[in-house]
Design a protein that fits this description.
Transcription Regulator spoIIAA, 128 residues, five-stranded mixed sheet, globular, alpha/beta
Length: 128
Amino acid sequence: MSEWFEEVEPGIYQCAGLKLETAAQAEAWTDAFGALLARATPFSLIIDTAQQPHPEAGKVFILWLKANRARLAEKVRRVIYVIEDPQERAVSQERSDKAGAAMPYPVEIVATFDDALQAARRALVTQE
C-alpha cells in the first residue's frame, strides 16, 4: 500500500512501524492516510503506541485531522491503539475518554495486536 500503512486484511490497515518525528514525515503520513480515505470502502486502522508523533510531527497531524474531519468520520470505522504497558494503557484510556468527542472516529485502546485485530473486525461488521 505505502511505506506508512500495511493492509492486514481487507478493510484493516496498520501503521507500518515508522516513527513520525518531523513535519515532513507527518506530511508523508497524512498523504498516505488521505489515499486510504480516497478509497470507496470504510476501514479500521491499528496503531502501535511507539508510532505516536513527536511534537513537530504532531502539529502537522492535528491540522490535517481538523481539515479532514468529515472524510475521517465517513470512512474510518475505528482507530485502535495497541499499548502493552497496563499503566500507560490506563493513562491513554483516560485521555481518550476525555477527548472522545473531539475525534471524528471511535478510538479503542487495547493490550495486544490480536485484541486490536478483533476490534477492527467488529467495527467493520457493525459499522459503528
